[in-house]
Amino acid sequence: MAQCLRVGGVLAVGAGRPELAVRLCAAAQTLSPSPNGTDVPVEHDLAAALETARGQLGERKAAREWTLGSGAPVASALRQLRELISSVESASPTAG
What pLDDT score was predicted for residue 60? Predict the structure, then answer.
């Protein structure tokens, strides 16, 4: 489940939703901490997406979104992920 949330963070960056990307990564970290002892995923692509989202938001806003994501119930993060997937699917040129 944590990896699904992290991959959702990558999807959120691609969808122009850096705040959601940070929140989903924070929820994933709360659920299953990164084995490297930091809040950065060990997978390069997931770590790069988190870094991109944080850079787009700036340090203060990224920290705020991290706090929101890590304090939210997992069910809330999963709901947000489902909504993101639905919005990306509906925006896809092949959706129909």
Answer: 98
Three-state secondary structure readout of 13-60: HHCCCHHHHHHHHHHHHHHCCCCCCCCCCCCHHHHHHHHHHHHHHCHH
Q: Which of 33, 96, 26 lies closest to 64, judged by CA?
A: 26
In the chain, where the domains are located: 2-91
Q: How confident is the model at residue 96 (pLDDT cuts 50, 70, 90)?
A: low
How many residues in total does the chain contain?
96
- Mean pLDDT, range 53-77, rounded to an integer: 96
Q: CA-CA distance, 39 to 45, in Å (whole number)?
A: 14
